[in-house]
Fold each of these.
Amino acid sequence: MKKDYLKYIAALLLFGTNGIVASGIGLPSYEIVLFRAGLGALFLVSAFCILRTPQLLNNPRKLGLIALSGVSMGACWLFAYMGYSEAGIGLTSILIALGPVVVMALSPLLFGDGLRKRTIIGFLAVLAGVVLANGGKLEGGAAAGMVHGICSALAYASMILLSKKAGDADGLESSTVQLVAAFATAAAGMALSGTGIQVPDSSDIVPALILGLVNTGIGSYLYFSAVTNLSAQSVAVCSYVEPVTAVVMAAMVLGESMVVIQWAGALLVVGGAVFCEVSKRFAFSPHFR
């Protein structure tokens, strides 16, 4: 397996535990997003100042695209948490899963990635798996929550496409810029919402640090240092590892029950992703090797 592919999967596995870690934080969703982005950005800025010298300042176009991808990431998180509270996690997760569909649909036009039959088959398998992993049911919810879920999906697709459009960049520097932009977006969203900042309890500190420094800081570095070197279709298909990880971890750690149909969905997602990646007829786009 390619090193970048392993880094990408590792990032998705970390992201899949976000809900588990966040369940131990007794703060409103807006504030969780703000702390998550802020701590992650602080971690990466510190690491960057120690280990690197700025390079993106010499390429304003690339810097702008990377910053916009960070804005999209922050918007994705904000819309997702809004959808969770308004329409439920199940329906919102299904709607956010439309993001990779958008990536796959646009990648032939934007990046010249040809749609292969095996890629389409694997993608349909993981999409069906996401539906099954959420219990095979769509929860009822407000129209506003559905709109926010769709907005999160579009923001997620935009994040991937903008990251790839920026091309190769130092993984640490690009992820630092993206998280700083995501934090600014979360702060702006919180300001527009008119909600104040609630002081966290002592019991919130440890899970908040894990969510911000490990899951977001390290996870974002692994994610963005790998995503530009993988084809858009590979990124789209394998991204479904994240929601399935969330379902499985919720069952194992929080004791949430998983029925047979959900386990079948998890197997479909993993199997579909592996099918696309190990197939001899699947090739990474030459533009992103």
Amino acid sequence: MYATFVIWTRHMRKFVQQTEELFGLALQSVLWVVLFGVGMRGMIGAVGGNDYMSFILPGIIALSALGGAVGGGMVLLDERLRGIVKEYLAAPIPRLSILLGSAASTATKALFQAVLMLVVGLLMGARLSVNPIGWLGALALLGVFAMGFSGLALGVAAISRSIAGYHGMIFLFNLPLLFASTALYPLDVLPGWMRVVVLINPATYFIDAVRALAFGTAATLPLWLSALILVGFAAVSMMFALTLFQRSLRA
């Protein structure tokens, strides 16, 4: 765990020192909420009696986490191409620690973006529930959700041979997973075949749980089921990343 902490610290120090990345994430967060959220609210006033900004904000946060996961995979790919990973491998640390350090830094950045989006969303009219425990639960689920998609991105980065190849493969689960979820529309308005696809998507469970915990919307899916699926998804994703990472080392 100490090795994971060291790698996380290294990535976060680099994040704080590189003002371009820090400013870019902050600006991206604001633009997503203001342009996308406000624009959609102009067409759809409310969903199920709730303001559309409150409805869509968890979906925007999920999108930022997906984008952050792609960035986390890029960091590992860059370190592979530059030979930095070889320096990690020379140390007597578990291979999983390298991946966990990268995934943890990605989750931390996702939390940073989520807080910014929440502040901007509240200024734009979103209504947060008066439930601090629910807020903490939503942030915890965000960390787990970000770790899960970081595992997928890290697995792809472990076997990619170029940046272009990485982005080509990562596109297969980035935006399609967002739109095949309840980020933009409620589950009950979807046709039957699409509901099946949506219910397979981990993003659906994260978004539904955050709406219930942080915004007081009635949960469409049981909260315990959403938490269980997200934790299981994160564990399977990290094992997927570890398997591909070890395979790339043998190759």
Amino acid sequence: MNTIDALLEKIDKAKSLDFGTIFNQSIELFKKVWVQGLVIRLLIMILMLPFSLIMYIPMISMGLFDPETIQNMEDFKPLIFIPLGLFGILFMFFAIVIDFGMKASFYRICKLKDLEEMGADDYFHYLKKPYLGKVVKLSLATFGITILAMLLCVIPVFYVMVPVTLMNVIFAFNPELSTSEIVKAGFRLGNKKWLLTFGLLFVSFILAGFIGLLLCCIGVYITLSFVYLPLYFIYKDSVGFDKKEVNESYGMSYG
């Protein structure tokens, strides 16, 4: 089983990575997992839909029963919008939990396809016991880190986005680590590979968005999962996998 010290040691000793190599590897893996990536995005959208509707029901109801209400919104007292704001924050956190858990499950699928291992495409793998509690804690941690960075103006957001995104893939292959250990490992790997990771994320996002738009916008759902793949290879080439340890960690229970 990987301990945090062993993981951090691997990160510190990680070799230099080549931008072009990782990008090309991501393209090849995308050919194998684009269907699973599409399913992930559609499932996230479906899970978010009920909460989106609930969030707008009060506004829709006011407009249907009294259209003048919408026209006179400036007359509303700010206190009326406090419950909507609180629900909005709750909805945002729920979305982060779903997104974090399903992306971790996608990374697990990526490893299965990349290394041609046996295993089911379990899209909810990390949203079930024994991992759900850890996913909630990590989502809260990433949410808090992002909010703090936003309060410190825009520049810190660009810095923390790299460690925060790497926490997802680190958790996917080290679910036995504690929340604080995964956060620590995310920042350690993020600091070491920040420029490479940011560059790959930026180029992958632009490429996925451009190709998605060429496919009549709806294609974005197909191409968006490509953005996740460079992170998988950054972890794979920096830390690597111990097959025995990873398989054992999938079968153990963690709080």
